[in-house]
C-alpha cells in the first residue's frame, strides 16, 4: 500500500497570504489528523477528520481550518498567515474505527516558511 | 508545566551502547501511551503502543515500559546503531470530550556516533 502523501513538500509564503495543504491518506483509511510541529512547541494537534466530519479539534485559532472529501483526502487551510505559522505540518491517517489503540501513519509533512 | 515531559532533551551515545529515554506525564484519563521515532525531515513512525494495563512492549531492539501508578514510561534501546539517530517522541492518548486526543512530548534527540 502507498503511504500517506502530502503536497506540497515545501512552501514559501508572505505574511497575510493564505495557504492550502493537501493530504492523501493510506487507501482504506477514513481518519485524517493534522499536526503542527515547531522547534519550540513540538508536535501540536490541529484537528481530526473522519468520514468528512471534524471529529476533534485542538487549540488553534480560527485561521486554521480543514476539510475532508468523500475519498478521505483532506485539505488544511491557513488564512492571514503570520510569521509564527512557519512550521512542519504533518498529516496522519488511520482506519478510524479501531478504537484507541489504532496506529497512526504519518506523512512526510509540508514545510511552510512564512516571510 | 507540560503535560508530557521527556528527558533528556538530547543524548549522544556510541554505536553499540544501550540507552534509556524517559517520559513523565500528568494527563488523565489516558487510554494508551505511544513512542514514535522521527528521522530528520520525515514524519514520525510508531514504535510501540501500550495501554495502561501493559507494563512492557518490545519492537526489535526497542523496549518500552510503563508504570501507570507513577505515570512514567521509558524507552530502552539496545545495541544502538547509527540509524537510531533520530528524535524519539512520547505521546499520551487521552480521552477528551468523548474522543481520543494525542498529547505529544517535546522529544529526545538521540545521536549515535561511530
Distance between the termini of chain B: 36 Å
Give the termini distance of chain A in whole angstroms: 37 Å
What's the tally of helices of chain B? 0
Q: Write the H/E string of chain B, N to C.
A: EEEEEEEEEEE
Which word captures the global form of chain A?
globular
Write the layout of secondary structure elements.
The complex is a heterodimer of chains A (115) and B (114).
Chain A: E1 5-7, E2 10-13, E3 19-24, E4 31-38, E5 42-50, E6 53-57, E7 64-68, E8 74-78, E9 87-94, E10 105-106, E11 110-114
Chain B: E1 4-7, E2 10-14, E3 19-25, E4 30-38, E5 45-51, E6 56-59, E7 62-67, E8 72-77, E9 86-96, E10 99-104, E11 108-113
Parallel strand pairs in B: 2-11
Antiparallel strand pairs in B: 1-3, 3-8, 4-5, 4-9, 6-7, 7-8, 9-10, 9-11
Please give a structural write-up.
The complex is a heterodimer of chains A (115) and B (114). Chain A is mainly β and 115 residues long. In chain A, 0% of the residues lie in helices and 52% in strands. The radius of gyration of chain A is 13 Å and the shape is globular. The mean pLDDT of chain A is 91. Chain B is an all-beta fold and 114 residues long. Chain B is 0% helix and 62% strand. Chain B has strands spanning 4-7, 10-14, 19-25, 30-38, 45-51, 56-59, 62-67, 72-77, 86-96, 99-104, 108-113. The N and C termini of chain B lie far apart (36 Å). In chain B, 36% of the residues are buried. The mean pLDDT of chain B is 91. Classes of the chains: A mainly beta (115), B mainly beta (114). The interface between A and B is medium-sized, with 22 and 25 residues.
Amino acid at each position: 500500500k502507498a503511504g500517506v502523501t502530502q503536497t506540497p513538500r515545501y512552501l514559501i509564503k508572505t505574511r497575510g497570504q493564505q495557504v492550502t495543504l493537501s493530504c492523501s491518506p493510506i487507501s482504506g483509511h477514513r481518519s485524517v489528523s493534522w499536526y503542527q510541529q515547531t522547534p519550540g512547541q513540538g508536535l501540536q494537534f490541529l484537528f481530526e477528520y473522519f468520514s468528512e466530519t471534524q471529529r476533534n479539534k485542538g487549540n488553534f485559532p480560527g485561521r486554521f481550518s480543514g476539510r475532508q472529501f468523500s475519498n478521505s483526502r483532506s485539505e488544511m487551510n491557513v488564512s492571514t498567515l503570520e510569521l509564527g505559522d512557519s512550521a512542519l505540518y504533518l498529516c496522519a491517517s488511520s482506519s478510524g474505527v479501531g478504537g484507541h489503540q489504532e496506529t497512526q501513519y504519518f506523512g512526510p509533512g509540508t514545510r511552510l516558511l512564512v516571510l | 508545566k507540560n503535560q508530557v515531559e521527556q528527558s533528556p532533551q538530547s543524548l549522544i551515545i556510541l554505536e553499540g551502547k544501550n540507552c534509556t529515554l524517559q517520559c513523565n506525564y500528568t494527563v488523565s484519563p489516558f487510554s494508551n501511551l505511544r513512542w514514535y521515532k522521527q528521522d530528520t525531515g520525515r514524519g514520525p513512525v510508531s514504535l510501540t503502543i501500550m495501554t495502561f494495563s501493559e507494563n512492557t512492549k518490545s519492537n526489535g531492539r526497542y523496549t518500552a515500559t510503563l508504570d501507570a501508578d507513577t505515570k512514567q514510561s521509558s524507552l530502552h534501546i539496545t545495541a544502538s546503531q547509527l540509524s537510531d539517530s533520530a528524535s524519539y517522541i512520547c505521546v499520551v492518548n487521552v480521552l477528551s470530550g468523548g474522543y481520543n486526543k494525542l498529547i505529544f512530548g517535546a522529544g529526545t534527540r538521540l545521536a549515535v556516533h561511530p
